[in-house]
Amino acid sequence: MKPSTGKHPGAPAIEVRARPGQPLGMSPRQFLRDYWQKQPLLIRGMFHEGVNAVAPDDLAGLACAEAALSRIVLRDEKHNRWTLRNGPFRERDFARLPKTRWTLLVQDVDKWDMDVAALLDRFAFLPSWRIDDVMVSYATDGGGVGPHVDQYDVFLVQGIGYRRWSIDAQPRAFSPAEFRDDSELKLLREFSPTHDWLLDPGDALYLPPGVAHDGVALGECTTYSIGMRAPSRAELLFDFAEFLAEPLTENDRYVDPDLVPAQDSGEIDEAALARVRQALPHFANVEKTTLARWFGSFITRYRSAQIVATPGREIGLAELQRRLSKSNVLRNPFSRFAWRRDGREAELFAAGAALRCPTGLARLLVAEREIDGNALAGLTTTPQALATLKALFDAGYLQLIRRR
Ligand code: SIN
Ligand code: CO
After folding, report:
1. Secondary structure of the chain: what % helix, strand, coil (to 5)?
2. Which CATH number fits domain 15-228: 3.40.190.10, 2.170.150.70, 3.10.350.10, 2.60.120.650?
3. pLDDT value of position 9
4. How far is the CA of 47 from the centre of ligand 1 (A)?
């Protein structure tokens, strides 16, 4: 472990010491340029006066309040297991805890305690609305929440006592398979720290999102986590769409007074897609295939009153081919079907699913309620077409019936 230097000569240092008038050990501008959302930084003495804004007993008291968000994490070192308990807690819950290897965490303590809220003054160089909360943890010797990664930037400020922090300094995205499945805590299966430090009271460790970390208390200690708020893009999109939709009235709808007789009534044609685009002017730049895939899925799911039951067992490809020659095929009346041209092929929509399909097959599936099995087999000549057909039977959207 090399705690105190940057990885390459000339690279920004990973550890600095606060200076009078510079609690970050540098100007806020330099911190934001070199570290913010980019790389971790240990700031020795950021709170040189020490941080003891909330006493452990008061934190435990807050963890008993109905409205506070609190957790206790117990660590079984021998079996490498963590147990999570959610608050609110009762006084006697604390009396029953072991002497060591547990930690109490309470979120939003800044909303309850003015002294904790005052810690935020040192972060006034950040937009205040980017700060989510101050979470305070109290840990007994050996306590911690295990190796994990957070989605948000965080400053981990050491309150009373000492904690050893290990980090893997390179921020990265983690796949779901990299997390253990034996705990409600999102713990990492593998953790290979590149750095570790013992934090003294008043030291702060800044971590951008995606930096794996693990903190273990050395004796009793408290940690103040100043956590940032970064809504996911999905959250932004959902909320924005809701915001745009809110003032629209019920009678403001998809309209098609320019409709001409359909060439194929199951087709979502170019004119229909142009009307959809017109109805959604805020998304005028969305790619055509994205808009079309979404609309086809939406409109074939839309207002479907029933969820179609699956047949219980999947049909084999050979069995499907054999039975098609002797059967007719029925579309489940609750499964809406539509299709659209996509180059030389089609995209078939069935009850919200989008499947690649030869155009002739898509046309036939959408046009007829009861389809001659031989006609269907005649159009299902490629492995991909057969796979599409099988998917429709397996989902229960199509079923085989004895030919009448
Ligand atoms: C803790 O205070 O024990 C956990 C803080 C964190 O890792 O985010
Ligand atoms: Co964390």
Report:
1. 30, 25, 45
2. 2.60.120.650
3. 64
4. 18
Q: What is the pLDDT of residue 312?
A: 86
Residue 78 vs residues 28, 42, 82, 96: alpha-carbon distances, Å: 43, 30, 11, 20
Q: Which of 214, 223, 228 to mutate to test the pocket of ligand 1 (most atoms within 8 A of CB)?
A: 223
pLDDT in the model for residue 302: 76
Residues of the chain with CATH 2.60.120.650: 15-228
**What value does the mean pLDDT of the chain take?**
94
Expressed in angstroms and rounded, the spacing between residue 149 Cα and the centre of ligand 2 is 6
Q: Give the number of the atom of ligand 1 that is nearest the alpha carbon of residue 145.
A: 3
Instruction: Compute, in angstroms, the gap from residue 225 CA to the centroid of ligand 1.
Output: 7
- Write the pLDDT tens digit of every residue in 206-261: 999 999 999 999 999 999 999 999 999 999 999 999 999 999 999 999 999 999 99
Q: Which two tokens stand for residue 386?
A: 């057969």
| Chain region(s) in the chain for CATH 3.40.366.30 | 317-402
**Which CATH number fits the domain 317-402, given the four candidates 3.40.366.30, 2.60.40.10, 3.10.180.10, 3.90.180.10?**
3.40.366.30
Q: Is 5's pLDDT higher than 70? A: no
| Residue-by-residue DSSP string for 283-318 | GTTS-HHHHHHHHHHHHHHTT--SPPPP-SSPPPHH
